Every structure is written in structure tokens, then in C-alpha cells.
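Per reviewer request, we include the raw input and output of the structure prediction for the construct analysed in the revised manuscript.
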Amino acid sequence: MTADSYDLTGRSVLITGGGGGIGQATARLMTERGARVVLADRDGRVEEVAASIGEATGWVVADVSDPAGAAAAVAAVIDREGRLDVLVNGAGWDNPALFSDTTPELWHQIVTVNYMSVLACTHAALGHLAASHGTVVSIASDLARVGGWGEAVYAGAKAAVVAFSKSLAREVARDGIRVNCVSPAITRTAFEARMRDDPVGVRIVEGAIRATPMRRSAEPEEIAEAIAFLASDAACFITGQALSVNGGVVM
């Protein structure tokens, strides 16, 4: 394997949840390695994020948990670049709570943002990815493997992302498409900061850090490195996997 295996020059990339910390870090890294990126987010501030990264980065405001929004995001990439090589499913959201305190409305919101967005975007992108022999990288969570106090619904949704990705990897390998997940632990983002403002969330964050052998949260750039690796030719024989980036909290 050579340094060129990590090069992404000429790749066209869609990153959903692109306004978030991991999405931004991934876009910056991929553009540094030669990719052209479109960020999709339902928050209009994604335009400012894209502008801060540079002219190789475009943007679209879209709710990708809705199939129409997912299709619009994919169409924006095709309109801008004429092809799609990499789909990064990064849209996510959680509101930690004990399951007994949750409501069906909250279940629906968590499952829709974290799982339905992956289904909708991947379905919209598959034909284009088959044409380019492209790849899908979805952001899951190590909670998918071990569960988490106060995050039963979120962990279940992320487990669905992993199971879906492994199943899809079997279906589309013959089309030259690779499908993988990156499973972070607690990561230093605005989402982590919001969790610290919640009595359940702060227990989750602080407990996770205490349980992590490296005794800290991940940085978004560390998660981005794993995403960029799985999107590159360096990972050309890797599919159907969930790569943990977690400081050793789950081994």
C-alpha cells in the first residue's frame, strides 16, 4: 500500500449531517486529499460551513431523513460534479433519556434521523455508486454493540445501521460497491456539549470517558481519518465492516 492509496483526487463525495463536527472535519480532510465534496444538512448554516472549507466544497439544505430530501441531496451532487463516488451517511441526533421516560414521538424522531436517513440516502445513491464503483460509509456507534444507559432507542437505531450496512454489502459487492460503518465513541462536538447540558446526557458523557482507557473523548478529526480511509483505495478489499474508533472503551 502506498501513500497514493489514500489520495481522493477526482472523487465526488456527499456528506450528510455535513454541518456537524464530524461532517465538517471529514469534508476538510477529504478536500485536502483531492476530493470535491457536497455537504447536506437541514440547518441552513451548512452554507457557511462549506464556504469556510473552500471552493471544492458545495452545499445543499435538505432533510435527508425524508426520501425526497435525500433524492435532492444526491441530485445536487450529480448536478455539481456529474458523478457520485462516496456517500458518507453522517446525519444523526439523540435526546438521551431512560426508556421509561420516552414517548413514541421521540422514538420516531430518533429512528427517522439516525436510520431512515441512511436508508433514504443510500437508496437514492445506489445507481450512481454502481456507475462509479463507489463506496458508502455510515456513522454508527459502539452503542450498537454494547448498548448504553439512557440511549436505548439511539443504540437500537445505530444497530440497525450496522445490520443494514452488512446486509447491503453482500447485495452490492457484485456491483463494485463497498459498504462500511465507522463506530465512534463519545466525540468532542457540539452534540457532546449539548449532552453535557442534560442531567442524563452528562452522566453518559462522563461515564463513557471514565470507561475509556485513553481517558478522553475522540476529536472529530480522528473520526474523519477513519471515514476517509474506508472511502479510499487503501480499503479496497474492506466491506461489510464496522470500524470502532473509541479509545479502547470497547475492545
